[in-house]
Amino acid sequence: MDHIDPICPFDASQYTGTPDAEPCERSLPVRERIAKLDALYNAGKEREAGQLLERSRAEARELGDWRGELSMLSEMMGHYRRGMEEEKGLQAVADGLAILREHHMGSTVSGATVMLNAATTMKCFGRAAESLPVFQHVARVYADNLAPEDYRFAGLYNNMALSYADVGDYAGAERHFKLAMQAIARCPHSENELAVTLCNLAELYDKQDPEDPRITDCMERAWENLNAEGLPRDGYHAFTASKCIPSFDYFGFFLYAEELRERVKEIYEGT
To answer: Does 2 share its domain with 133?
Structure first.
């Protein structure tokens, strides 16, 4: 796919400089569109969510609103990961990074957050080695601009760990999974995120030693978090549970996996 080659190699200097602070003359109602998007996801309407994103991006471009377009591209990266649409996902990455380069947004928190989404998408579609310099740049920007307890570190470390695991750096992966759990523990109502990280950590231990007793401990702790008292059984929980089900199946926790499948079905049918 020649059209996505500009993703690699990553040169952080291309993204830095004085950020473009000029306001766009007309702008997309981004918050309104994201609220609609969340409602569609909560109802399990993935196809309609994708259509909304494509329309919204096109509208932002027509308005000349590069910030709105960048927001929609960032959401599109996540959407195409959900649907495992590789070509569209990597194209969204290339387009988003191009906007960040043009407007010198790489040293801002908002720009780095889009880059985090881009790196996560690259990893998802087999480009873990290319994603790591992007993750490392995001880590530097976050460290310079965010408080250590900021929730955004959790997503950064978790996804960074997955890329380290994919390139065979298991020590780096374990270190970053543990950093992710430390960051998650500082956030309220974070049981969904902790469950996913524990499943990821179990899979990391399995790659090194399928008999590692820590695997069972991780999976039991993931189950406890998915069933934490007061945890909302909403669309986000259904999405998280869906991400954990393959791990429960793989490690032989079939009753847990089946209960989660029923839970996900009930959540989506009830919305």
So the answer is: yes
What six digits make up the tokens of 51? 């259509």
Distance between CA 178 and CA 161 in Å, rounded? Answer: 9
> What global pTM score does this model have?
0.83
For residue 207, what are the domain limits? 147-271
Residues 190 and 263 occupy one common structural domain: yes
| CATH of residue 72 | 1.25.40.10
Query: What is the pLDDT, as a whole number, of residue 271?
Result: 60
Tens-digit pLDDT profile for residues 234-264: 989 999 999 999 999 999 999 999 999 999 9
Q: What is the mean pLDDT of the chain?
A: 93
HEC-encoded secondary structure of 200-267: HHHHHHHHHCCCCCHHHHHHHHHHHHHCCCCCCCCHHHHHHHHHHHHHHHHCCCHHHHHHHHHHHHHH
